[in-house]
Amino acid sequence: QASGRLPARMAHAVLPEEFAGPDEACRGGHEERAERVRSRSRAQTKVTQATFASRFPTKTQIRDWATLLLGARFLRHMAQVVGGLTEKRMFKASQDYTPDQLTASIYQEEAVAPQSRSRILRVDEIISMEELEFGEGVPPGLFRFVTDPRAAAVDVLKIAAALLSCCLFPVTFIFGGPWADPGPPSTRLVFALDALTDPAYLCGLLLTLNVSFYHPAAHVEVVRRRRILLRNLRDVFWWIALLSCTCSLWILLGAPAVLSNVKLVRFRELLYLPDSLWRWRDRSCVVFLRLVVLLLLASNWVACILFYLGGYREAYLKDGEARFRTQFEGQPINGELSLWLEAFVEAIYLLVGCLDNPLGDGGVRENHFGSLLVVAILGPAGLVVSSMFVSAVIQQQQLSSALSRKHLKNKAFMTHALTILNIPKPLQHRVLSQHYYQKLGHDKEAFDALFNKNNLSPALEVALLVYLHRDTVCSSRYFLGKDPNYVIEVLRVLVFEVFLPGDYVARKGEIANTMYFISKGRLSILVPNHEPRLSTQVSMAQAIKVLERGHHFGEVALLDDCVRTAWVRAESYALLSQLARDDIEPIWKYFPQEKDELHRLVLDV
């Protein structure tokens, strides 16, 4: 080229790239390499001048140089294409990875509950069975209360029969007559219905001898038939309950109807739920309903006792049914029902300790010894019943409102502190706004109780974390498809942070050492103004993007010391998962390749 015998275009075409001119080397952007290229170019210029001064290159030499140059470029191009395809395949493979695969590495659902309809895993393993001797197994045909639905059916049969019987049998003796002369015609109908409950209750009582039971002291399920039989046959109340099934027969044979009070032992079936229904014992609806039913049934029995012994029966037989009739919307109500209802109201007040006329002045109980006797005996019992009823109601109310009371307590302390510190009202409102959001939208107290180490196994804790972060961390391009152990360790160190509308999650110029994943809410990215004097004013910043659930930002802060280059502002109540550099660096000691991969991905972005 220097001698003028080779055009410049051809010189650049045939010479290797490292011998390109200094201007082209400078365009590479590396000063050191450019200096080396200049030195080589000057030396090559002298060589070229000497070479072309002696002779012109042959066509074969030019063709060989061109083939070599084009082949090298072709190979570089193919390497880039193959690398791009490999990267795309790797990214596609990572996209195929789902949080469910991560959950599958924590526990295997099919193995713990195969074909089970129960909401509790392996119920038969929750309550251990008593140790049996070598070669001894569970007796064939035994109803195990833990897993066998037939045991629950037996107990439900007993409860239903006892409930219906406790409603009916008190009414059969209010007039005290035998089956031949029971009183009003309705009494005989009630007696017949009550007699039908006896066979059902008897069946349940006998089948109980074939149902295992829970030993409260040993905390095991007893399955030996001998122990089951001894437990029931040694129980006096079991024999009384068995005897109560014959009361209707004795009354039919001429015994007084008051004998049916033996069935009072059936109230025991309603005091406590049986072992087969243990999962229903702690439900608040069951507790409240059981208390109300027991109070109403006990009031029914006390009302019938008052009717029989407290003067109502004598007044009815003396004055007749018409004297006690009442009116409801202009319609007459039967005197028997009206008189029984009057006794029922007095019985309720007696059992809850609120009877304001214990002597019955001005009523049918006035100057009646039987009435005084019933009130004297059941009055103190009513105080006990009322205290038990009220304590049970208060206990359930405290349990249902425990979290609310804790929030109210925290709010009272916060309000008092804000007042003492003389915090301005607008700032107080923001503090209380965050309190209400955490109470209603993200209950930190409840989450702390849930993730208490004493309440969860490590596998359950991780499974819950995977579910909570399935659309954020687990689906992030930085963690999707990674080693499950690495992702789990990252999930363990995440911290939930709550931000109010208008809060700056990140500020330009602040020291950055955390990465954020958005679980709830919307955030805006604000870039500074191009003019240097306005670059630090957030009011002049421009919003360029809105981040929502599943987005993340701040990943550069995990790799090196840096400062934020933009503002990130919460546009709504936001719940973010914070990942700090101090928390992830100990994890990278065991997974160094993940840090390198994150560094490469950040550089690509």
TrEMBL record:
InterPro entries: CNG_cation_channel, cNMP-bd_CS, cNMP-bd_dom, cNMP-bd_dom_sf, RmlC-like_jellyroll. Keywords: Ion channel, Ion transport, Ligand-gated ion channel, Membrane, Transmembrane, Transmembrane helix, Transport. It is found in: Membrane. The chain crosses the membrane at residues 159-179, 199-215, 236-259, 287-312, 372-394. SUPFAM superfamilies: cAMP-binding domain-like (SSF51206). Coiled coil: none annotated. Residues 478-587 form the Cyclic nucleotide-binding domain. This is Cyclic nucleotide-binding domain-containing protein. It comes from Zooxanthella nutricula.
